[in-house]
Amino acid sequence: MSDYPHLLAPLDLGFTTLKNRVLMGSMHTGLEETQDWNRVAEFYATRARGDVGLMVTGGIGPNPEGSVAHGAAMMLSQKDVDNHSIVTDRVHEAGGKIAMQILHAGRYAFSPDCVAPSAIKSPISMFAPKELDAEGIEKQISDIAACALRAKQAGYDGVEVMGSEGYFLNQFLVTHTNKRTDEWGGSYENRMRLPVEVVRRVREAVGPDFILIYRLSMIDLIPNGSTFEEVVQLAKAVEAAGATIINTGIGWHEARIPTIQTSVPRAAFAWVTKKLMGQVNIPLITSNRINTPEVAEEVLVDGCADMVSMARPMLADADFVAKAAAGKSDQIAPCIACNQACLDHTFGGKISSCLVNPRACYETELRVDPVDAAKTIAVVGAGPAGLSAAITAAERGHKVTVFDRASEIGGQLNLAKQVAGKEEFWGLVDWYRAMVKKYDVTVKLNTEVSANDLGEYDEVIIATGVIPRDPQIPGQDAGNVVSYIDILNGTVTAGQRVAVIGAGGIGFDVSEHLVHDGDSTTTNLPEWMKEWGVTDPADHRSGLAPEGPQPHAPAREVTMLQRKTTKVGKGLGKTTGWIHRASLTMKNVQMIAGVNYEKIDAEGLHISFGEAREKPQVIAADTIVLCAGQLSDRSLADALEVKGIPCHVIGGADVAAELDAKRAIDQGTRLAAAL
Ligand code: NAP
Ligand code: SF4
């Protein structure tokens, strides 16, 4: 008997059966836009081979005005049908099923031609939409229906109609965006007319026996969003109009409440889907922050849904389902919900990948093939760069030994995992441990190696990481000044008033760590909901608590500083930076930019501003934490060079300025794939 009987149970839809309860949710990877259809097909086929029950493609536009941006993928012509057929054929050959998502972005479209129920610009858009007239609305409906028919002709097993996250159909539903006074606005009956009509016309176009998923926003998390009564009314109408399955959407893109990032508790919104269970007769899918088979199984056992959507976890590990079914869930590369290589890439106009799995979306290019002749490889440094290189090389058949002077593997990941809201990093280190074991990598911990120890290996990889930069502030040798390492690894407990020097990724992490006391809200859903002002949408429209966010009192008074005059936190991730800033602002962390560090003494940190060193002031602090960036630790690489022993230098040891796990893992994996 499997460990996940509910998750792995087939789902009979009457005319077809899904092999299990796992949906790979839609993701905008940017692959379809490359027009490299072999690459697109390989991305989806790899996941089909990994046994996911049903996949949904990235959002495909039904027409130019509705597509997310100029140049975004659309399904408009016979040529598009032919291209998409390459994908569906490959997926079917691999034994999978795939539905195409039809995404009309409405006012979220990055285009001056965008359209919406009313001409109201969104806070996250550059362009104000044009208000559609009745003829324009009819055109959108028929374009969506025609798009669905083409998807069927292209061989898809179904379509998903995107009705949530604040996109076009969602915009008709709520008075926040729909101020119309005709039959498409006003009463809820009128406001839901468009989504329901779209479902009806799509069903009419594709006929029976074709999967039609409707993605329904169950908790909008914006002012004047839907009530739960309206959600139920819509779900019933969508079912009656011909939907096969209802998928859950959580929060509009413009909502100021995090919904998928790493600090959001696992399965944080499954309870919302559960409220709809039993109200309709078609299967429901739940979503958001479900990233292990254990959590997915639990959600199903708890009766929250009939099926579970996991999107980013399928980037992290294409074989998620197959490994779960084989009893190897410790080998599933975990999605840590960082967004660094997926959503941040999408919003930066780059193709998505995955921080923990650089092969994601690069299936045709980054190949990890077995080697003919095994080499002996020494890897010095068991951080993300070294470990990725080690397991990739060992997977290919090389004989790998990893050395680290620390007593456990993980490097800087072991610091990150101490931060409240970054608990997922524990799982990542555990995964490396499982993979090192699986591929029989020899790991020598508590071992300091010198150049003399490395001469016998065929290849030497130096992944020795970084050393903290010395900011050379007069007085910094005083006892009240500590490194971020001492704070995060717990060797020093900070005083009540803390000044944090440096506002990069680590300055933010340290500040977050310092203002938290007790358990992280990421592991306590009711507390997290209170912190962000989320409540039951049956009690309050849209799921917004009327009292707003109610964070815990900060454990310390923290001031975070930087010398740059730019906005503090500007360099953080595109889709996560706002959350870090909001979270620290809620904890009264003072963020000061444009400072000169004058000196440190018993009073605290003395600063001034500008070239003229004006406005001197003292930040009274019991503890001053240095988070002033990093320098590469190249001492071993230099020693090897002196001895004439060639080596590869990767991760922070190579480039400290961009020290981050995404770059380190990518570099380690690519190097090992080429050795
Ligand atoms: P960073 O992002 O480069 O930030 C360094 C900070 O130090 C900046 O605020 C910089 O601001 C300041 N600084 C630079 N030189 C200084 C000097 N001489 N004196 C005083 N201040 C100085 O580096 P980081 O914060 O160390 O993070 C590096 C990367 O690690 C991040 O981008 C992130 O991806 C990753 N990260 C790692 C962890 C982890 O635990 N390992 C955690 C979070 C993030 P000014 O120059 O304006 O003063
Ligand atoms: Fe998950 Fe981060 Fe990978 Fe995105 S980049 S799939 S959030 S681990």
Automatic annotation (TrEMBL):
CDD domains from the UniProt entry: DCR_FMN
EC number: 1.3.1.34
GO molecular function list: 2,4-dienoyl-CoA reductase (NADPH) activity; FMN binding; iron-sulfur cluster binding; metal ion binding
UniProt gene name: fadH_1
Domain of life of the organism encoding this protein: Bacteria
Keywords linked to the UniProt accession: Flavoprotein, FMN, Iron, Iron-sulfur, Metal-binding, Oxidoreductase
NADH:flavin oxidoreductase/NADH oxidase N-terminal domain sequence ranges: 7-330
Similarity-based family: In the N-terminal section; belongs to the NADH:flavin oxidoreductase/NADH oxidase family.
FAD/NAD(P)-binding domain span: 376-647
Protein name as annotated: 2,4-dienoyl-CoA reductase
UniProt-annotated stretches for the region Disordered: 536-555
